[in-house]
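Worked problem 6 (solution included).
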Amino acid sequence: MGRLSTKDRLPQWGTIDLAIFPLCDHIDESHNHLFFECSYSKRVWSKLLKWQNISKNVRRWQEEKSWATSNASSRSVQADIYKMCLAGAVYHIWLERDARVFSQGQKEDKGLVRQIIQEIFVCGSMTKKFATKLAQMNCYP
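Solution. The predicted structure is:
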């Protein structure tokens, strides 16, 4: 719903003057840029799409949501894995952004992708249908 406290909204509140995005250091931070337009986020999402064997280019936030609504709305295991990847990517990219803003830490995109995939394996292994599909996908991009 566009309510995240991204740096493009903070100057409106008089909190900060500069809105540089901490994941790529050269473009203003906005909600749209945060998850899929930034080079860091784009690499993370591209690797997760490749891991799922989905051949498509990374798009803007609204376009990704529309694609997910039309292509991953079924109750299939593949659709559920896609939704888990999308949620995991959004969550972990936001955590990485916060880590860089508040503690100057940094995690490589490859490490972030591995963490998301490992969490999907942990959650997905709880049911037999997920475990079977995930066993077929048992490799990292």
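Discussion: The two ends are 31 Å apart (CA to CA).
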